[in-house]
Write a structure and sequence with these properties.
The chain is of the alpha+beta class. It has one domain. A hairpin with a 4-residue loop joins strand 1 and strand 2. Helix 1 packs antiparallel against helix 2 and helix 1 runs antiparallel to helix 3.
Length: 88
């Protein structure tokens, strides 16, 4: 696999996760209370909060947090299925 194709697949997976997460939040906010609303609006956060490190002349902030919900997982799986079917 060429480096350009790998970059394209990684960008497609990231965009799928972002768009899926947004759609899950949007759908979850519109649905009436119940199991479907819980399915779409429930999310799990994985990572660590930002930490600021201050040295004498240098200061930097480190942190990464992934918010995963049902739609983000579903869209990532759909992107993987699409690439397996179309490119591989």
């Amino acid at each position: 696999m060429k480096g350009r194709e790998l970059t394209f697949i990684i960008v497609a997976l990231l965009l799928g996760a972002i768009v899926g997460g947004f759609l899950g939040d949007l759908i979850g906010s519109v649905l009436p209370p119940g199991a479907a609303k819980t399915l779409f609006s429930k999310s799990v956060q994985i990572g660590f909060e930002t930490t600021r490190v201050e040295l004498y002349s240098i200061s930097f902030t480190v942190g990464i947090m992934f918010k995963i919900n049902f739609m983000s997982v579903l869209t990532v799986l759909l992107v993987i299925i699409y690439f397996r079917w179309w490119y591989i």
